Amino acid sequence: MEHIALILTASAGLIGAAFARLLADEFKAWAPSLISYILRIAIRTLPPARRERCAEEWESHINDLPGDLSKITAACGKLVAAWRIAAEAFGLSKRAFDLVLVVPALLILLPLMALTAVAIRLDSPGPVIFRQTRRGLNGRQFAILKFRTMTVQENGQTDAQASEDNPRVTAIGRLLRAVNFDEVPQLLNVLKGDMSLIGPRPHALAHDDYFETILSDYPFRHQVKPGITGWAQCNGARRATPSERVKLDLWYINNWSFWLDIRILIRTVYEVLRKRNGY
Amino acid sequence: MGINEPRLTQQTLKVLGALMSGQIRELSGADIARTSGLSSGTLYPILYRLEEFGWLDSRWETGDPAVLGRPRRRYYRITGEGAKKVQQVVRELTPGNVGLAWNT
Lengths: 279, 104
Fold this sequence. Notes:
Chain A is 61% helix and 7% strand.
């Protein structure tokens, strides 16, 4: 009886050792391609101007390390580095782009905005500007500004998505919504830095909470500033499901470039002129 | 501190420290990672930022990668400007400084 146990233990040990050896060999053969794969993703994440230098520098860094495990760890580190460098470049050039466009736009629109303010005041009692708390960069809350398009409700706000035939919409409000002019005060949000011209639309807080429970990718939207218009908006956002919209937002965050922003901006102007995505 | 200067975080100081101490004044990213104990994810954004601000200088290793048989290293060294700034900060932070102020 004891002999059998001994033999069993010994053979189990042998099989275990052989299996471990197999795994180790497999890992050795597999590690270099895994490392170059991770490094390739890291390089792709970088802004194009940095890619060439980082590719060679980082490859040599990994080449200088002993052992496959430390090489893999370092490759993952490069991925983090690329992410951070890209995020920094994204933030800086985007802010410059926003300011260059928003300052002249505000100056040009100021007379029209003043006229609108007077019209809202005369049309129905209540403030000119409607403020609502939304989540911005890194989830920090800010007050989004819009021209008020509805009559003021006594018992607080509702979270209902705006529909076209809401009886609370004022006459001026209907006009403003039809030409999307109610969103224009958000240029001030951009000037202040709470928002960007282009980015994922900020949703009402209650909607944020709801989407977070049903879409695991949703919080990634808060890695960038929310925008007045976005990639989802010029891809038929009103007809898309929430998860399709979040996918479009994430695609934008991962594929952002200066030209993409320009494209979205032109597309938005075109859509607004066609009056198709009225709120 | 003005907007035209990098923030001197603990990690930034470690990077500068690695480049200022020791005999060898020119180090590769891998060398700095080893001496400072920082991971690549933290190290490289700092290196590039310090270089943009002119505190660091870098150059490719001389030699053809084909002859070397491996990708070229990039070597970093601290600039005169960078060294001056670091010394200034160190002076401000040295406890002895405070002591002197108390004594006088």
